Amino acid sequence: MCGRFSLYSSYSTLSQGLKLPLEVAVKLTPRYNVAPGTWITAVRHPTDNEPLVMDEVWWGYRPHWAKEKAPEPINATVEKVATSNYFRGAFAHHRCLVPADGWYEWLPLNGKKQPHFLCREDREPIWLAAIWTERPDGKPGCAILTEPARGVAKEIHPRMPLALDAESLKPWLDPHLTDRETIRQVVHHLDAELITHWPVSTRVNRPTNDEASLIEPLKP
């Protein structure tokens, strides 16, 4: 599951991590409580022959060909994304990256749910694998891929977003790489040993709360 995340790194930090030439069509402002159903920053090729761009996509996936009441998921599982009729076209041709500094998950505790913030131990940005599609309104919408939780992330939730290692970013974004098995061979998730987490304030439960204090460790 990935239903809330943060992105506060500067463009220069993201650019250094991506190490790919790209155009910028979005103004980055720090966001500490990014929720579904909002515009989020993504890196993608708008078409196969257009340069890589960092722009905004709607966090909610509904293809333009889908019926009006079709689902609008925010996540797609790695187990089905390449074979599902709803996702496989985007998996083959419209893959993108969603940069994040960390994400939130909720741990059931004493009848309540305690939010935790998960991020890299070195605090470097994380690149989340995603797919995008042209929505019925003609604008891009995306779903973030999830996989079974690994490492310490398993302590909080059974699933986690698919975070990619540095060598996988370029092939994941390559619109000419469409074969499922080839993609699996050249794209790898981030080492789970790099991930850490800590409990944070339940103020993150409200999407309208959006400030740096949300990611601070909860005081005993």
From TrEMBL:
Sorted UniProt keywords: Covalent protein-DNA linkage, DNA damage, DNA-binding, Hydrolase, Lyase, Protease
Highest taxon above the source species: Bacteria
Pfam families reported for this sequence: SRAP
InterPro entries: SRAP, SRAP-like
EC number: 3.4.-.-
SUPFAM superfamilies recorded: BB1717-like
Enzyme class: hydrolase
Alphabetized PANTHER family for the sequence: ABASIC SITE PROCESSING PROTEIN HMCES, DC12-RELATED
Family: Belongs to the SOS response-associated peptidase family.
Name of the protein in its database record: Abasic site processing protein
